[in-house]
Design brief:
The complex is a heterotrimer of chains A (283), B (311) and C (304).
Chain A (H helix, E strand, L loop, with lengths): L1 E4 L4 H14 L6 E3 L3 H9 L5 E4 L5 H9 L4 E16 L7 E3 H8 L8 H4 L9 E5 L4 H11 L10 E3 L2 H9 L4 E6 H6 L4 E3 L1 E3 L4 E2 L3 H5 L7 E9 L6 H21 L6 H22 L1
Parallel strand pairs in A: 1-2, 1-3, 5-10, 6-7, 6-8
Antiparallel strand pairs in A: 3-12, 4-8, 4-9, 4-12, 10-11
Helix pairs in contact in A: 1-10, 2-3, 10-11
Chain B lengths: L19 H39 L2 H6 L3 E2 L6 E2 L2 H32 L2 H15 L3 H19 L8 H25 L3 H9 L4 H12 L1 H17 L2 H6 L17 H9 L8 H29 L9
Antiparallel strand pairs in B: 1-2
Chain C lengths: L4 H4 L6 H10 L7 H30 L16 H36 L5 H13 L4 H15 L6 H25 L3 H9 L4 H29 L3 H6 L4 E2 L13 H9 L4 H35 L2
Helix pairs in contact in C: 3-12, 4-7, 4-9, 4-11, 4-12, 5-7, 6-7, 7-9, 8-9, 9-12, 11-12
The chains are: A alpha/beta (283), B mainly alpha (311), C mainly alpha (304).
């Protein structure tokens, strides 16, 4: 089965696919991360069986899916926070307010040095790395921080791959960027995660602050979108079910916060219902 | 490339006879092959032309060629391709500054200095380098050249033009060496002997007699290697970064034309979206530039010096 | 300090001339090109050795592992590299099966059937030859639109094979045409004089005489495209597969794209995995080259 979508979910999908292959003697899973938008597009084109997503499907994407007759079910699998990172030796900045982030990332922003961002900081140029325009993390961050999805300054170094963003920020003095927490966790020795002041004091990103809601505006739920037609193949249902069942264990290992047990039960129920609907449709 | 004059006599055509039927079938099969080849080329060209036409319907050509901001996917898109062109030019010129001396001197060594055994070893190394896939060079640029560069210049960014340039230079050096050696070998031995007979050192003869006689071939070697550098994708995609601004320092990241295409495609390119139009326009520009460079290089190669031993 | 010139030169200089030249210009024996060209040759050697060393070192160091490892690095074993190896072999097979016959047929048509003096034929030939200089990533863009979105071939081995075949085609046409052109015209004149048809001349004279260089050229083109990552990335190659492709309809995986996917990750485990895949890729390319060499020698031995 073919899975495409969010780069933020990739560490989890890879861990799950590897465990699934081990358990089921080489279950046939192929992964790619074209970004949440690309994943939705491919799902609705009937190219893939499962799309992973770091933001919900937009109304326009939903309409396109309906137009093409692709029914799907969304299963929440984990919680992740968008993490703002800086170069590991940048000890002068520990916390940024949402307002500062907005000034930095707004379209046409003129903030090009740390001093312009906050007086008192050195006048070093801020080098910016962030996800490209296919990314769900980009859509989510711009919506929360700037106020409109996809509204961002354009003079940053874009990459579809969060690991490339991590490498860029880690290797460029005075650089800054944002990415999914799991990708930060995989590079934590090379990066410095900044706390974010969302109005109620500075909060550091961590699975704990994602779970208790204190990091809340920058926390999103990660979903699997499974095509109903694909569920007629038992292997797809088995993989999706395995994904949901394995997430409470694998998500924290891969650097996410697990959802509550009740939410996984609900995901399981949604999957079972969709499978029944698919079987009804085929008979 | 001299057109052959021997063809089947016309009076034999259409006379039937033994094997005429098989001949007709074979002709049709080969014609179909040629049509498939032509069709493939036409499809590649057609896709680029349609995509570029859609792109320019939206973005004025003046802005494309003169603009200095490349942000095709921003809310208010800007379509100035100049930063990408500047990055490609800088990396190409830097790479040829590495590859031309390295490759040409290696060619001189192989043709005029090497003993039989050492020559075979060096030639094997050059051939091995020539057959290494560019993605492996990309690995080297990212995981070996960049860390080394940062030891020397700690201010170098994680993705920078300098290490990509150096490795692209290494990648195209075998092309220069191979074509350069062919050019040197095409010079009649009499030139060399005459020079030596005048008592000049080997170096003077090679530099002042043989090399000028091989100038066309050497120029072609450099031009064809530069065409490869312009089209090189993996090294720059992996090691040069995605900074689409005009960078001045080689220690900063830059984004070339090819890197833009490859990095954009790491997401998803919808055939009806702005990403496809921008990618097609850049690919069309690459197509035109590399095609012209290749044609010019081949034209130089086709015209050998007068009195050449290998017409 | 005089080097034994006559032994070292590609063009032997008679000892008489050397002896005559030496006393004529005393002090002019210092050869500035000797040192420089040796340095360049040594640099080439060092580059080749350094490249091998970089890859070997990364794989070697992988045994240590890091405490901050990511849970999904699989190591450079068969489970991780195997699917990509199979994908690359499939792609090479598809390229050979498509580009070789079509390219050879095109070259035969252009060289043996088409009227060589026609301007259209010459223009076609030149256009195809220069396509060989167009970057591979451009073929990926065309393939994405035509194969993936137009023909709905998906991001499959099939689509990848077609794209790589299209990429190899101009080179196969050019090298085959050159090999055909090198066949002496006497063979053709004699055969036509006996009343042979074109096909008979192609079948019994041209192809046997040109088989070895045609095979060599095609093999070089196929080896070259088997190492291509850029067009497959644009087509949308899979970055993680738990199974080896078993047919043309399976998802597109390949060693070059896998080297890319792992090399760009900053963790040492992935660098090792990328280096391992790179070594596997180089081994496959070497194998293809050696196979081509054998084929070429076979073909040469069989024929007069």
């Amino acid at each position: 089965m073919v899975v495409d979508g969010s780069n933020s979910v990739l560490p989890l999908s890879e861990a799950v696919a590897a465990a699934f292959a081990e358990r089921h003697g080489g279950g046939r899973v192929a992964l790619r991360s074209s970004g949440t938008g690309g994943g939705f597009r491919r799902l609705c084109d009937g190219e893939t069986d499962i799309a992973t997503a770091s933001r919900p499907m937009s109304a326009r994407e939903r309409a396109r899916c309906r137009e093409r007759g692709v029914r799907h079910v969304a299963l929440p699998v984990a919680r992740d926070g968008v993490t703002v990172v800086a170069h590991s030796r940048n000890a002068l900045v520990a916390c940024l307010g949402l307002g500062e982030l907005r000034r930095l990332w707004a379209p046409g922003s003129e903030v090009s040095t740390w001093r312009a961002l906050r007086p008192g900081l050195p006048a070093q140029a801020v080098r910016l790395y962030a996800p490209g325009s296919d990314s769900g993390t980009f859509d989510f961050f711009t919506r929360v921080v700037v106020g409109r999805a996809k509204a961002s300054r354009a003079d940053y170094d874009p990459s579809a791959d969060h690991e490339t963003i991590a490498r860029g920020v880690a290797g460029t003095p005075w650089a800054m960027g944002y990415m999914g927490y799991a990708h930060y966790a995989a590079n934590r020795h090379a990066l410095r995660a900044l706390q974010v002041d969302t109005g109620a004091g500075c909060v550091a990103p961590s699975p704990k602050s994602f779970a208790d809601g204190s990091y809340s505006p920058l926390v999103r739920e990660l979903h699997l979108y499974v095509a109903e037609d694909a569920l007629r193949r038992p292997a797809v249902g088995r993989f999706a079910g395995f994904f949901v069942d394995a997430s409470p264990r694998l998500a924290p290992e891969a650097g996410y916060a697990a959802l509550s047990a009740a939410q996984y039960v609900r995901s399981r129920a949604l999957l079972a219902e969709a499978t029944r609907a698919a079987e009804r449709g085929s008979s | 490339m001299v057109a052959r004059t021997v063809t089947r006599p016309l009076f034999l055509e259409g006379t039937g006879g033994p094997g005429a039927r098989a001949d007709r079938v074979a002709r049709r099969v080969f014609l179909a092959c040629a049509a498939l080849t032509g069709g493939t080329a036409a499809v590649v060209l057609g896709v680029l032309a349609v995509g570029a036409a859609q792109f320019f319907a939206e973005a004025p050509a003046g802005g494309f060629f003169a603009g200095t901001t490349w942000a095709p996917f921003a809310e208010e898109p800007r379509f100035g391709v100049w930063p990408l062109v500047a990055a490609t030019s800088r990396i190409t010129i830097g790479a040829i500054l590495v590859a031309a001396p390295l490759g040409l001197l290696s060619a001189v060594y192989l043709q005029h200095y090497a003993g039989r055994r050492t020559g075979a070893v060096v030639a094997a190394a050059v051939a091995a380098l020539a057959s290494v896939p560019t993605v492996v060079f990309g690995y080297v640029a990212l995981n070996a050249a960049t860390p080394l560069l940062r030891l020397v210049w700690p201010g170098a960014e994680a993705f920078n033009g300098a290490s990509a340039t150096l490795v692209v230079g290494l990648m195209i050096a075998p092309t220069v060496a191979f074509l350069g050696r062919e050019a040197l070998a095409a010079v009649p031995p009499a030139y060399f002997h005459a020079g030596m007979a005048l008592g000049a050192s080997r170096g003077r003869v090679v530099a002042l007699v043989v090399a000028p006689a091989a100038a066309r071939g050497i120029a072609a070697a450099v031009l064809l290697a530069m065409a490869r550098a312009v089209g090189e994708t993996m090294i720059v995609t992996m090691a040069a970064g995605s900074h689409a601004g005009l960078a001045w320092s080689p220690l900063e990241g830059v984004r070339t034309l090819t890197a833009f295409v490859a990095q954009t495609s790491l997401g998803d390119i919808a055939p009806d979206g702005p990403d496809f139009r921008a990618v097609a326009a850049v690919a069309a520009l690459l197509f035109v530039v590399t095609y012209a460079m290749h044609a010019a290089g081949r034209a130089l190669l086709a015209r050998r010096p007068a009195g050449s031993a290998h017409p | 300090m005089t080097p034994p010139v006559a032994e070292r030169s590609a063009y032997p200089v008679s000892p008489t001339i050397q002896a005559a030249a030496k006393p004529m210009l005393p002090g002019r024996r210092r050869d500035f090109l000797a040192g420089a060209s040796r340095l360049a040759a040594a640099t080439m050697l060092a580059a080749a050795a350094g490249l091998a060393g970089v890859l070997a070192r990364a794989v070697w160091q992988a045994n240590g592992g890091s405490a901050d490892g990511t849970p999904y690095a699989g190591g450079a074993g068969w489970e991780t590299i195997g699917p990509a190896v199979a994908g690359t072999l499939w792609l090479a097979l598809a390229t050979a099966a498509l580009a070789l016959p079509i390219g050879l047929g095109t070259a035969l048509y252009l060289e043996e059937y088409a009227r060589p003096k026609r301007r259209a034929v010459r223009a076609f030939q030149a256009a195809v030859a220069h396509l060989a200089g167009v970057p591979s990533v451009v073929y990926g863009v065309a393939g994405l639109v035509v194969l993936v979105h137009g023909l709905s071939a998906g991001r499959s081995i099939f689509a990848g094979g077609l794209a790589l075949a299209a990429l190899a085609l101009p080179t196969v046409v050019a090298t085959s045409a050159e090999a055909i052109r090198a066949v002496p015209d006497d063979l053709r004149t004699a055969a036509y004089g006996l009343g042979a048809t074109r096909w008979q001349v192609v079948r019994h004279q041209v192809l046997p005489a040109a088989a070895a260089p045609i095979a060599a050229g095609a093999c070089a083109a196929i080896t070259r495209t088997a190492g291509e990552a850029a067009p497959l990335l644009v087509l949308g190659a899979t970055s993680f597969a738990t199974f080896a492709p078993a047919g043309p309809g399976d998802p597109l995986v390949s060693l070059p794209t896998q080297v890319f996917a792992w090399a760009v990750r900053p963790q040492a485990e992935f660098a090792a995995q990328a280096a391992g895949a790179a070594i596997a890729l180089l081994a496959i390319l070497l194998g293809l080259n050696v196979a081509g060499l054998f084929l070429r020698r076979r073909l040469r031995k069989v024929l007069p």
